Amino acid sequence: MRKMAIRAAFVVVCGSIGLAQGGGQTGAPSARGERAGVEAPAGGAGRQGGEGRTVILEQAPKDHSIAIPKDKLAQYLKDMDAKKLQTLRMIEGGKYNVNIRRITAAETGLVHPITADLWVVLEGGGTLTTGGVLENGKINGGQSRKIKVGDVVYIPSGLPHGVSGVDSNITWLNVRWDTDWPPDSPMGAGNLNGLLGRAAGARAGGAPREGAVEARAARAGGAGAAGAAPPAARGPALPPGSQQVLPYSYGGSGELFFSKEQLDQIMAGMRLKKSVNTRLIEGGRYNVNLRWNGTPTVELHEQTIDTWVMLAGGATVNTGYQVKDGERVPNTGVSVVSKPGDVFFHPSNFYHGFSEVTPDIFWLNIRWDDNYTK
Asked: Which structural domains are found in the chain, ordered by start?
């Protein structure tokens, strides 16, 4: 772990919604889709936020974490309704962003050529269609499924998608990252060991799928059921109790779906087996995990960003602290008490972790590398 200068900071996003100055675009989004964002301070080349406006609350930091409490998210929804916004970009990183999407009717289908989406449904429900062919904003063919509160959906780059059949409204946390890393850039978030017969990293295009063969085998056996998968498809062996050996799915060309009920079953299995991490999706330079912990932690990822969605339990989230002999130095950094429904953003190369866990905590951990340039 390399030495680094630490600035102790933890921003809690607050205040009312205002329009980003100078960077908003007008007009409907292109059917070709777009990159995750732009680098300009007030830019944002993604989907527009209602009436042609792009609303950006904050540029992604490098020197502090961002806490977005559940009650602040609730206030954002009220503000979005008042301003008739469909998209609120809470964090803009140019090659990645963190958004709230809130719609009350069917939306135009779209596809992002180099941008992957991870959705966590927060409110309402609707019908998600993925795959098929996108023509004049409509998806022909593809597969459809109902999605509801607590469901998690991964949509890879290059895959047409759109929501219809909205039940009053549907609101989701939308975490997006570009997938055009240099081919020779090192993987920081994960690895593709054991992935046979596929290209490394996210692929564009292809038919939608209900996970991979090994993913279905793992689901059939429940959490931690690596033995159900073909031996050749397994990843590297890890210490007992540390992490499920086989990811449930590998990121690729198709939509991946995890219902709330399925996630609840996985969490119950993790607590029973004392497994601290279940990798739901592995993409090499990105992954999505269910994590469980009952003890303090110290984390730093030199080239990987973490976005946390708290699911159950409580703990104190610490960030920007000093470390000595692998332990957090007391009374350094900034601390925030977390609760289910809170969202946290941690930049790469910045210390973060938990203390005062009561009695344990589950969170969805969405991670991607930020080494887009050499």
From this structure: 8-179+286-374 (2.60.120.10)
